[in-house]
Amino acid sequence: MEEIKEAIKILRQGGIVIYPTDTAYGIGCRIDLPDSVQKLFKLRKRPLTQATPVLVDSIRMAQDYLFYPISDIVRHIIKDYWPGALTIVLPGKTDLIPPPVRGNGKNIGFRIPDHEIALRLISGVGVPILGPSANLHGQATPYRFEDIDKLLVKKVDYVLFGKCKAGNVSTVIDCSGEKWKILRQGAVRISEKYAKRYTIY
């Protein structure tokens, strides 16, 4: 698909692309170019203190940016829900992750999307890409291309079209401490077998 090849080329060069995921339309750039990250936050008018989710194509890719080895219990929840609409927050390598991506903190939220286009983008670029929804800060999450702000579409470098299967945001669970916290309830309902490990915020 020539459109995906073009999007990969643009991302590799530091550009910003709007693309479909399994949850909603996302807007992304590669994680390892601070100038691109800054531009993306500016386009979305998102505060630099609010972390943004990151998409990977494998557990190995996520591990490269995590401070600790992924624990066995976290690997269990990964096995149950990845690829899919679950964002898992863990301590990251602050020297490799630009401050806005982690909200100037130490943690980072990763997920493997269950969407062929998004996965091909990540694999083609070779590094994680940012995965916030393609909307201006405070606006509604776009589940269809028609829902995306036209001014935002004009400002990015490329747009890929596709269907978002879940039609809901990802569930976000913070696994950075001993007691897990569900920070946002979205498309995924965490199994009862994990209930003793988390609280809902």
CATH C-level label: Alpha Beta
CATH topology: DHBP synthase
Number of strands: 10
For the biggest β-sheet, the strand order reads 6-3-5-4-8-9-10
**Proportion in β-strands:** 15-25%
Give a quick account of the main beta sheet: strands, pairing sense, barrel closure: 7 strands, mixed
- Average pLDDT number: 96
Order of helices and strands: HEEHEHHEEHEHEEEE
Write up this protein.
The protein has a single domain, classed as DHBP synthase, CATH 3.90.870. 26% of the residues lie in helices and 18% in strands. The chain contains six helices and ten strands, in the order H-E-E-H-E-H-H-E-E-H-E-H-E-E-E-E. The protein has helices spanning 2-12, 34-44, 59-63, 72-81, 116-125, 150-155, and strands at residues 17-20, 25-28, 54-55, 86-91, 107-111, 129-130, 158-159, 171-174, 180-184, 198-200. The longest helix has 11 residues, at 2-12.
Q: What tags apply to this protein structure?
A:
201 residues; 26% helix; 7-stranded mixed β-sheet
In short:
This protein has 201 residues and is an alpha/beta fold. Helices cover 26% and strands 18% of the residues.
